Amino acid sequence: MLHDLNMQYAIPGLTFAQNTKGFTRAVVKTPTASGELYLQGAHVTSWFPFGHKPVLWLSQCSNFEKGKPIRGGVPICVPWFGPNAKVPSAPAHGFARLVEWRMASAESKEDGAIALRLEASIEPFSVSFNVEFGPQLKMTLRTRLSSNATSSVTFEDALHTYFSVSDVRSIAIGGLEKTSYVDKADQAALKPATNGPIRITSETDRVYLNTIADCVLTDEGLGRTIRVAKTGSASTVIWNPWIDKSIRMTDFGDDEWPQMVCIETANVAADSIELSPGEAHSTTAIISVSEGHTRR
Questions:
Q1: How crowded is the C-beta side of 59, counted as CA atoms within 13 Å?
Q2: What is the C-alpha separation between 44 and 153, in angstroms, rounded?
Q3: Which of 87, 223, 259, 265 is the most interior residue, by most CB within 10 Å?
Q4: pTM score
Q5: Residue 237: beta bridge partners?
């Protein structure tokens, strides 16, 4: 398989390799950016433009086991988000992050980016994931309902992005100042807009609905700003497990919570998507970073 991938898809700046657990990944290294993507889950685990520190966070305790999710990077959540209310035994966040995706294409772009396309079948949907590793990280998840379906189907999705930060207690997230949210860390209570940037001071699990706004993460400790722009997404989720929940998660280090925060590009709950047979929906996140004196 590895040989075939390199024969068919390797191009200057892109090779395929395996980690120590035997997981296959695409490795991008060009003059403009570096990154990695695992075929299980079409899971981006690393990206940073040339001259910058790594932008994404990956747990040192992450599982690299078949059929188990990778903790960190950009998990793909589809066709549901969180637990499945109708089937509690079903895997959290759906099947997409657990299955092996198929490479469909790889090409170099004019700006020096490497563009990959992967595909998978998540019944009753066919899904594709386009990702460009370049000066920006551009990711598009496209979900199509089979034309053979007998009725419309509603689904949720998310690009569940984990960002690396100096200390989550000292960052600020702007863009959602005027948006109310569902506080899943407080019995899903509906909370009013904060009228100020988000500050993380305890376990945080917020679902901001009906928002198309960009989010801007300011991290003075790393001397950088990360912008998360999006299209086709009406929800934004902000998450940090804090102390107690970190201890309960076996694939998350007990002391790792200060170094990460999730800003998730999503369509969940009241913003879920309904497709008629043959219809498709695309959710796109575009991540960019600017730094001052902090260099890699």
A1: 24
A2: 27
A3: 265
A4: 0.96
A5: 207, 264
Spot the catalytic one: 160, 203, 220, 256. 160
* C-alpha span between 180 and 190 (Å, rounded): 7
Query: For 11-28, what is each residue's pLDDT tens digit?
Result: 999 999 999 889 999 999
Contact 284, 45 (CB under 8 A): no
Q: In the numeric block, which tokens belong to residue 27?
A: 């490795």
Alpha carbons 30 and 133: distance in angstroms, whole number: 9
Q: Answer whether 81's CB lies under 8 Å from 156's CB.
A: yes
pLDDT tens across 39-90, in order?
Answer: 999 999 999 999 999 999 999 999 898 989 999 999 999 999 999 988 989 9
Provide the residue count of the chain: 296
Q: Cα angle vertex 57, ends 176, 90, to 5°?
A: 80
SS3 103: strand
- Count of C-beta atoms within a 10 Å radius of residue 243: 12
Helix, strand or coil, per DSSP, at residue 113: coil
Alpha helix locations (H) across the chain? 2-9, 242-248
**252-255 contact pairs (CB < 8 A, 24+):** 252/59, 252/61, 252/71, 253/59, 253/60, 253/61
Q: Is 264 among the catalytic positions?
A: yes
Provide the CA 205 distance to its chain's centre, in angstroms.
Answer: 16
Residues 263, 176: Cα–Cα separation, whole Å: 11
- Set 110, 264, 291, 293: catalytic member: 264
